[in-house]
Structure formats: structure tokens, C-alpha cells
Write a structure and sequence with these properties.
Distance between the termini: 26 Å
Order of helices and strands: HHHHHHEHEEEHHHEEEEEEHEEEEEE
Mean pLDDT: 77
Number of strands: 16
Low-confidence stretches: 7-74
Oligomer: single chain
Length: 406
């Protein structure tokens, strides 16, 4: 076994577990808003909470803060009164739960997790009690919430640890009251997040966009957006889009600190069933994401089902190819601070999903994410985030996260 193989095995053993189904659900949630049909529904019906500062999968972080307006219309009066009656001391606890300094960067973009899977009976009772909670059936007492659990703590009743955003549960069946306490905690976290100053500011900015969904004085023109989108596609795929049909639309898109909520969505359609979807910030022209589709096949979430043997040469070759595309798109003067290759493996330690994830953190505050399709030797998806934890999969069992030389 060579040094590279040993490193793969070491990194694989270090990671903790979530199931592949949970991972796919998480990614599906993130990616569905990128689908044009779903995005249109989003623009018409909800305000999307700012995900820029929280990272690549931040829309999963505070699942409650995909906010419909008005917020208070979503709960009945008894629940609203319970939320509003929280003491100042209790409010500080929930405000602290949103403090990034109190959470590990490994989990600050996720919904609250459970230390074990709920039994089918617990799931059934949880669903039933969620409805009862909305009708005013509240728990007796409150759940224990700690910043960090001490090592080897015996779990005799449910405890929420802020650091890992995790409910630590006893191995026995939970009581109805304990399930209600968990529901209560999640409802209060949601309420606190939705009513934070940052959330109010976000909603106000998005409301402003909805009331006037047109480019402003600071935004680039449609012609400039099309030209920039063409250049990025040339850099990533080496294609000439001048003969393709295209559409351009100004939409509510992704938030980055250097621009507002207005995005240009440019879609190029070729005669060969391939299409390319590029979102660019209205003010800066920075591409927040690029998707490639062949017919109904979306390479952002396409899983080939083929396994691929991990080799040092294979990883390095794909890495160098992807890094070259990064420089072609944004110029060779970009300074890469850190980079990783991330991939899921099976029991034989072969790459599954037919994809490698390359992340490049630069000195300009951006992290560039590439989904490299192994068999097709192409980028299936690209996204920019900022102020982000470099790794997306660092705590995933069955995922290897390999630091690479920039």
C-alpha cells in the first residue's frame, strides 16, 4: 500500500456518518432552487434567506428561514404568544445559537442533527405532536441546551449541543414530552432567526427587489451580462456561444457581499440538446453559479452510478485540469490560498457518484466550487461562495476530504 492509499484510508476513517440518502436530500434542497421552473416558483411565492455569509449549503442551515411573508401568519396565536413571551434570558440562549463563534465550521450550515436515528414510532409521534404543538399543546419544562458537551457525558435525557448543532439522545424511546421539547427548541430557534436584525434587513432588501425587479443604476446592462456569461463559458468549456440562442432575465438570485439580490440569468441553448445556465450578480457580473444540462439531464446533481478507482495520478490530473479552468475563467492572477479534493467512496474505497468536488479558496474572499464529472472529463456544476468553510463534506462518513497543494 503506497503513501497515497494510506492517506485515503486515514481520511476516510476520520469522517463521521450521515447516510447517502441524507446527503442527496441535502443537495437536492440546495440544487432545486437552481432549476428554472422551481426558481420561478420561488420568485413568485417566497423570499429566500441570505445564504452568502453562511456558506455553500447555508440554505440548509436555518431551514426555517426560507421565509414566507408575513412570518406571523404561519403560526396560530397561541404559538405566536409563546414565542413572544420568551424571557430575556431564554432569548439570549437562542441568539447565541446563531453565533458562528459558538459553532464548529463543520456543521454551521446544517439543520439540527440527531445523535441517532429516531425509531419509526418516535417519527410517527413527532409528526403527530408537531400538529398538536401548532394547536397549543406545549411541553412541560425545557430542554437542556449547552454550548459544548464534556467528553464521555452520559446522555440520560435529550440535550442540545450548540457547538455541533446536534440533539444528543438517550438510547431509550423518547417520551412525548421530550419530543415536544425538541419541537419547541426548533420552533424557538426558527422564531429567533426570523426576527433577528439580519433577517429583517434581508427581508427588507428582498422586498425592495420584488417591488422593483429591474436593474438599477449600479447594475451592468443585459449586453454586458451576456458578454460576461459568454466569456465564462469560453473559459470553462472552450465553446463559442455566438451562434446559440439565448435568453436573459433579471431575477432574485444568490446573495454575495459585493452585490445585491438582483442576478442576471443567462441561458444559452445549442442545437445539440445542450444548454448552459449562468447566474451573474447584477452589480458586479460575478458568476454565482453555472449549470450545464443535456436535455433533461442536469449535471449539477447527476449521479452516474459508476465507481472509479482512486489513484494519485487520476486525482492530480483532474485537479490540474480544473485549476486551469479556474484561471481561464478568472485570470491567472488569482491567488489560491487552500484547496481540497472531496469525493464519496464505497466499501472498496472507489469513488462513487462519478464525480469529484474541487474547492479553491482564494485571497479575494471567494471559494470556487467545481463538480468534476470523471467519465465525461468535464465540469458539471460551478458555484462561488464567500466567507466560507473550505470543505463541504469534512464530517461525512464515506467522504474523503484531501487537502491539495494550491
Amino acid at each position: 500500500m503506497n503513501k497515497f492509499d494510506k492517506e485515503v484510508r486515514r481520511l476516510a476513517k476520520q469522517t463521521k456518518c450521515i447516510t447517502s440518502k441524507e446527503y442527496e436530500e441535502r443537495m437536492d434542497f440546495l440544487l432545486k432552487k437552481l432549476h428554472r421552473e422551481d426558481r420561478n416558483k420561488v420568485r413568485k411565492s417566497i423570499f429566500t434567506f441570505s445564504a452568502g455569509k453562511a456558506g455553500f449549503a447555508a440554505c440548509i442551515l436555518i431551514a426555517a428561514v426560507v421565509v414566507a411573508v408575513p412570518t406571523t401568519a404561519k403560526v396560530n396565536n397561541m404559538v405566536a404568544e409563546r414565542m413572544a413571551s420568551m424571557s430575556e434570558k431564554e432569548q439570549k440562549v437562542y441568539v447565541g445559537m446563531m453565533d458562528p463563534d459558538k459553532r464548529t465550521r463543520e456543521h454551521d450550515t446544517e439543520a439540527i442533527r440527531y445523535s441517532r436515528t429516531l425509531s419509526s414510532d418516535e417519527e410517527m409521534r413527532m409528526n403527530y405532536l408537531s400538529g398538536q404543538y401548532e394547536e397549543g399543546v406545549f411541553p412541560e419544562g425545557g430542554m437542556k441546551i449547552v454550548d459544548r458537551l464534556e467528553e464521555n457525558t452520559e446522555i440520560t435525557c435529550p440535550v442540545l449541543e450548540i457547538w455541533n448543532r446536534e440533539f444528543y439522545l438517550p438510547e431509550r424511546e423518547l417520551t412525548d414530552n421530550e419530543l415536544l421539547q425538541m419541537i419547541d427548541v426548533m420552533q424557538k430557534e426558527r422564531y429567533t432567526a426570523e426576527n433577528s436584525e439580519e433577517s429583517k434587513k434581508t427581508i427588507a432588501e428582498q422586498q425592495e427587489f420584488i417591488e422593483n425587479p429591474n436593474p438599477g443604476e449600479k447594475d451592468i446592462t443585459e449586453e454586458e451580462a451576456v458578454a460576461k456569461a459568454s466569456a465564462y463559458l469560453q473559459g470553462m468549456y472552450g465553446i463559442d456561444v455566438s451562434s446559440m440562442n439565448y435568453t436573459v432575465e433579471f431575477v432574485m438570485g444568490h446573495y454575495l457581499d459585493d452585490g445585491g439580490y438582483g442576478d442576471y440569468e443567462v441561458i444559452f441553448q445549442g442545437n445539440d440538446d445542450w444548454s448552459y445556465v449562468i447566474d451573474l450578480k447584477g452589480e458586479t457580473g460575478v458568476p454565482t453559479d453555472i449549470m450545464i444540462l443535456k436535455g433533461d439531464l442536469n449535471y449539477a446533481n447527476y449521479v452516474s452510478g459508476q465507481s472509479w478507482e482512486v489513484t494519485e495520478n487520476g486525482i492530480n490530473s483532474a485537479y490540474e485540469s480544473t485549476k486551469e479552468k479556474l484561471f481561464e475563467m478568472f485570470g491567472s492572477d488569482i491567488e489560491i490560498v487552500r484547496s481540497t479534493c472531496e469525493f464519496p467512496i464505497d466499501e472498496d474505497e472507489n469513488v462513487t457518484e462519478g464525480a469529484l468536488y474541487f474547492l479553491f479558496e482564494s485571497d479575494n474572499g471567494y471559494t470556487y466550487h467545481f463538480r468534476y464529472m470523471i467519465d465525461e472529463d468535464m465540469i458539471g456544476y460551478f458555484l462561488i461562495s464567500e466567507n466560507d468553510s473550505l470543505s463541504l463534506h469534512i464530517s461525512r462518513n464515506g467522504y474523503v476530504v484531501m487537502p491539495l497543494e494550491p
